[in-house]
Amino acid sequence: MPERGETESRRLLGRLREVMAEDAAGQARLDRITQLIAEELHCDVCSIYLFRNADTLELCATMGLNPEAVHQTRMRLGEGLVGRVARKGQIINTHDAPGTRGFRYMPETGEEAYASFLGVPIQRLGEMLGVLVIQSKDARTFSEDETYAVEVVAMVLAEMTELGAFVGEGAALSARHQQPVLFNATIGQEGTAKGHVWLHEPRVVVTNPIADDPARELERLKEAVETLRVGVDRMLSTAANGDKEQLEVLETYRMFANSKGWMRRMEEDINLGLSAEAAVEKEQSTARARLGQVTDAYLRERLHDLDDLSNRLLRILTGQGEETGAEMPADPILIARNIGPAELLDYGRRLKGIVLEEGSVGSHAAIVARALAIPLVIQAARITNEALNGDLILVDGDQGVVHLRPDDTITNAFRDKMAMQAQAQERYASIREKPAETRCGRRIALHMNAGLMADLPSLGSSGAEGVGLFRTELQFLIRSKMPQRGELSELYARVMDAAGDKRVVFRTLDIGSDKVLPYMKAVDEPNPAMGWRAVRVALDKPGVMRMQLQALLRAAKGRPLSVMFPFIAQMEEFSMARAEMDKALARERILGHPLPEDLKVGAMLETPSLAFAPDKFYRDVDFLSIGGNDLKQFFFAADRENELVRRRYDTLNVSFLSFIERIVERCARTATPLSFCGEDAGRPVEAACIAAIGLRTLSMRPASIGPVKSILRRSNLDELRKVIHDSRHRGDQSVRPAVMQYLKEKL
Length: 747
Ligand code: PEP
Ligand code: MG
What we know:
Layout: H1 6-21, H2 26-40, E1 45-53, E2 56-63, E3 74-76, H3 80-88, E4 92-94, E5 116-124, E6 127-136, H4 144-162, H5 172-176, E7 181-184, E8 186-189, E9 192-199, H6 214-238, H7 244-257, H8 260-271, H9 276-291, H10 297-318, E10 332-336, H11 341-347, E11 353-356, H12 364-371, E12 376-378, H13 383-386, E13 392-396, E14 401-404, H14 408-430, E15 436-437, E16 443-450, H15 458-462, E17 466-471, H16 473-477, H17 485-499, E18 503-507, H18 535-540, H19 543-556, E19 561-568, H20 571-591, E20 599-605, H21 615-620, E21 624-626, H22 628-635, H23 654-670, E22 674-676, H24 684-692, E23 697-700, H25 702-713, H26 717-730, H27 736-746
Bound molecules: phosphoenolpyruvate and magnesium ion.
């Protein structure tokens, strides 16, 4: 095979375009394409394999192999050289195909006669559609230029396949996008939702992959890149006073936008006959394929930056903005790779569910989704490639499962599940005004957790007696700059107004660890959950805490106020924080502002150390609240955000329950009011056990109040306590089996 030049490649693409313009049916068109590639590239065989379903490839057209094998020869993903190209998304180029690892002999194709094999993935934006193969009898390795030409052809094929050009038997992609897909992913927020897909970032559609006039395309690319650079520079200048991290991201953008390598590769693509947008997309595809293999978090972020930049460039070139004219369905389920908290709040409660390709349990988006009580599933790999706007989708946030384009059986089963949940909700509504009074006559106070103004209406609808935990950091997380004291004070006042007579416990800013403020310099810590977070930051850099305390005091306007400090690990931290509150009070008094008629200052017990603090600490605090999420992670040394370990230890483990009992006893002895506000307070069985060992106040997400109240009203805590004690004395590791058995018999 002679060395190839630009002219030949351009001729190849030109002919390819002619074929695409012909009025041939799907299969005939595919056949023409393979014939043309074999001729133009002077090779003996050219074949196109496309996905039949998620893990099967089918020979859909060939020039050179036995024509009878078309639509007969299939291989599984990873099987044979073709299967390996598809699985890894990487080219295989060999002069000795039969001697290459993974080769599979397929007698029906007559393939053993060909020594050389070049397989190139047909992919579009990281989505694998199939494999384009050329083969020749003589044993040779295909040159770089030849490989590149085949890659460019594969890119064009991908684009055309995407456009539904190959309708008919070879239409693997369009068929694929009609098939049901199941995603086993991770729970972000419980709840179930049925709806239709709404893509947060609609794909840019490239309709003209091949271009006649490279000079014109190069010019278009240059102009678009220039516009892009100006845009990035503008962002940089407006962010000049911003924080360092944001600047760093923008600097990376600028670096990419000015990258000669990036530009050169795109120019080469254009010289071979691609349009400017197809060239951008080809490089984007390559970057995405690389993304799949990079594990380094920092590099992944940078590749994402490049991806975002490519999207911007595509939008400039195609004139397609964020608005594609598509209408949001009435029951939207948002699909995104990731989403920021502010963007999520913009959608607000309109969304029925959210599915993210990335995201983590503690991400800001997850925090907001939780606050809005929208079912959320995270880490649903490849969902942005699979889902199309308007597809039917079922989100099972209880299991972390998503059904895209489900068949009727699944849809019916899901509908039954949702109906049962709705019935249960009705049952809960009927006890909304009733107290959580147990069969043994004890009253448990059920409060709700909140963090946004949008949560407050739940105070009435859930039947909560108050807000046991108001996470103030959400207001800081969703903004792009530090909120002002006036803004905060106004917001806190509105929260108190909305709560009326009900008590709201404001927790001061709990940042650090998973909650990094976008506008504050992130500190690179080896283990942020045990690092510089919450009250530790507040005491070292007291400016923000002082501003926040002042905002709270002003918001109270003389009304009763409850404030608690997060993550207190030793007595002194509390006394220092309290001293700040005293100073703030003194200042307000001097300024003549009204002081709260009843101020309660408490601490969160989130580290085991505090359970052993001196009695003096217990007497000094006005109240204590167990932050079970953090307390449990430190008790078991199991990161609450690490999927590998976060579910490993049971809350009903005897050691943990005994530990909580100890805290209950200390609080009883020192007359310290105690509550529990971690996620476990909202899980009915756990909540009943926590109440059985002595907690009388639980704070949970609003949706859990009904289920928890329902179980408590049917429980006898004395009996349950005995079941727990007996199980412990028997030497059980967890009291769960015994408790479940008891509840099954008694409830
Ligand atoms: C906790 O740790 O249990 C808690 C309530 O606080 P957060 O989940 O906000 O860390
Ligand atoms: Mg906590």
